[in-house]
Design goal:
The protein is an all-alpha fold. The protein has a domain of about 35 residues. The protein is about 75% helix and about 0% strand. α1 runs antiparallel to α2. The protein is elongated and about 50 Å long.
Length: about 70
């Protein structure tokens, strides 16, 4: 990777982790609103939101680790 290809810390608008996190929050918001309008129980909504947050969190942590390993090389 060239220096331009490595996203600098603080350059969030080009960060995959930023966009995945933002997308995950958007999905959580939409899912919550839709399921509330469909009268789905709060417990079920909580489980779905927790699952989405877990997947997004795992991705962000994994990419952070991969980015850290790439910088070491």
């Amino acid at each position: 990777m060239t220096e331009e290809e490595i996203t600098k810390q603080g350059d969030a608008k080009h960060s995959r982790k930023f966009w995945v996190t933002l997308g995950g929050l958007g999905v959580i918001l939409v899912v919550s609103i839709v399921f509330v309008l469909m009268d789905v129980s709060g417990e079920e909504i909580s489980g779905i939101v927790t699952s989405i947050a877990g997947i997004v969190g795992a991705y962000v942590i994994g990419q952070g680790y991969a980015d850290g390993q790439a910088v070491k090389k």
